[in-house]
Amino acid sequence: MTNMFKSPNEIKEPLIYRIRAGLIMMGSATKAELSQRLGISFPTISKFLAQMESDGEVLFTGNDESGGGRPAKRYTYDPEYMLGLAIFIEKNETNYSIFNCIGEIKEQGILPSVLQQDALRLGDLIEALIEKYPKLRSVAIGVPGAVDNLGKIIFIPPYQQFLDYDLKEEFESRFQIPVVVENDMNASVLGYASTFEIENESLVYLYFGQYGPGSGIMINGDVVRGSTFFSGEISFVPQYDCQTFVQALKLEENNGGIVLAEDKQIDAIARLIATFAAILNPRAVVFCNDEVDEVFLAKVAVRSSSYIPHKHLPTLVISDRNQDYLAGLQQLALNVMITDCC
């Protein structure tokens, strides 16, 4: 699994974080290999590995073949030493995933929604999972709203009980483990890029359902959150004479899903695609597999080309949002697990 966390050289924290990340990324390594890879002296590597082995964080896996001198000892990171939790709250359900520190899934499930209740109920669900998995060392929470850089929810209609709620501070104080809170579509575009190993590219991830349309935007491999962390709130994009994008779509639910079929909806989405193409020129725009099909996207592509020359239009693709959403949150939790847990 690639792109699940920062490279060792990107981590400017204490040396143990760099050694931890390096050993996980390399799979296994000798002291000399780690020293060369990380640019850390051999004696320092030896000191930290000895302590990490004593703590059970690192496992000795055997000696390499001797090249004439003393054989080098090989080490690997114990994948079960730390576990992470990715959890996102939706209108109708709460999805979660428990995984180890190399990204292997231990458990996934769906729980009742807490959006109709409050953050205390979400905290109770997390607490129950921590009791079940005592090695849980990080939590990433996805929410259907804008989140500032401190972990406070600053825009989440129509769930006003969560507005201005600082989930990060609340849950870090309660559980004494690092917590990261992220907007749903930011996490989804991050998860899509990591799953398909897309690096240094520009992508847009669109979602139309449950709360009105939203998007996650990635430019050159970085998720764009904006100066006030409001990036991606495409409901407000003005279209036509007196309509916003959400008004132009006139979304209606049918059997729990969003129906997109009318010519006016196709045109509204085509105009949005043209806007993204003219401003960001992304490689692809990702749609959710429970909202559109290939026939619908073909119509959008044709209509989009009436606004923007075809060669400048992004590729339109379909993906599984729930999987991408969890994958993005998992990446965020792995990052904070490696860099914030001692």
Written description of the protein model:
There is one protein chain. By secondary structure, this protein is an alpha+beta fold. The strands form 6 sheets. A 5-stranded mixed sheet has the order 6-5-4-7-10. Strands 13-12-11-18-19 form a 5-stranded mixed sheet, with helices on both faces. A 3-stranded antiparallel sheet has the order 1-3-2. The two termini are 23 Å apart. The longest helix has 20 residues, at 321-340. Helix 2 (31-38) packs across helix 3 (42-55), helix 6 (184-195) packs across helix 10 (321-340) and helix 8 (263-279) packs across helix 9 (294-304). It has helices at 15-26, 31-38, 42-55, 119-132, 167-175, 184-195, 245-249, 263-279, 294-304, 321-340; strands at residues 28-30, 58-63, 73-77, 83-89, 93-100, 105-112, 136-143, 146-147, 153-155, 179-183, 203-207, 214-219, 222-223, 238-239, 243-244, 253-254, 257-258, 284-288, 315-319. Helix content is 36%, strand content 25%.
